[in-house]
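Please review this one:
***
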Amino acid sequence: MYYLLRRVLFIFDPEKVHYFTMDSLSLLLKLFPARWFFKKLFLTNNALLETEVFGLKFKNPVGLAAGFDKNARYINELSYCGFGFIEIGTLTPKAQEGNPKVRLFRLKDDQGIINRMGFNNDGVELAIDHLKKARKNGVIVGGNIGKNKITPNENAVDDYLFCFERLFDYVDYFVVNVSSPNTPNLRALQEKEPLENLLKTLVSKNQTYADPKPILLKIAPDLSNSQLDDIIDIFSSTNIDGLIATNTTISRENLITETEQVEKIGAGGLSGLPVRDKSTEVIRYVTKKSGNAIPIIGVGGIHSAGDAIEKLKAGAVLIQMYTGFIYEGPAVVKSINKAIIEFRSNK
């Protein structure tokens, strides 16, 4: 049924239809029969799915990646789609429009998406208002934080610190996003010295609270092995809690979509099936090189139960979806959870 709906939705502009779909879902789930139907159809409860990591207990290990619900508007609605955790953001101190539209493109033949959104969001304060009203239904909520476009890199720490302090009481964990390709010069913060400084500052602030929150770093799939080695060193030196691997890629290799069409789309981060193998390799490399010492949330190209299990076998402890959720619908979340039950029961 979702595939028929998708054919209709994919006729329209991706960004506009995203909000139309979520607003429609929000209206639908105000009705008790719809909530009952979604629970029966998409939710999976099983002790084998429960996953404890970063000091948090997840009811299942399948999450929704940042970027889908930037402003924490749809946590309640998305909780009915079977996710064990939802990551909001990326949030910045001040609201910003992001890059000029049109900035979101489907590569249907590749089951991918190119976006150059540019951290468009309504600012951290409005997200907090939404979080205060959210009915989480047992779902863990993460806060993905970044810097405003107008903030120079030398002052980036201030933006991350502001978001961290303001969101602290409203999210369960934090993700430091320095790996988006859509904010000018942001990826320069992945270099060892500025990244170490940023993370140490946040960890130091975290320790001033009675109950510190887990802090994770989201990394790009385009890092070299030597850069990944630096990330492993930084994980140890800063005492952060884990990594998210990976963000979108700037690569356009091995696409089915015609080169002319891809070039016409232009710059942006590519997600979906084209990044699947690259993100899995990053997970596998970091897991092996660190001696399985780094908890990793695996994300990138998960469109099926098989893709999810592959990430877990590579070393991920949790997984996240974004593009796969758009292409496959909420039924894929239940399919993945059922596969994880089988995978864990056979271990």
Remarks:
- The two ends are 34 Å apart (CA to CA).
- The CA atoms of residues 54 and 206 lie 14 Å apart.
- The mean pLDDT is 97.
- Residues 2-345 form a domain with the TIM Barrel fold (CATH 3.20.20.70).
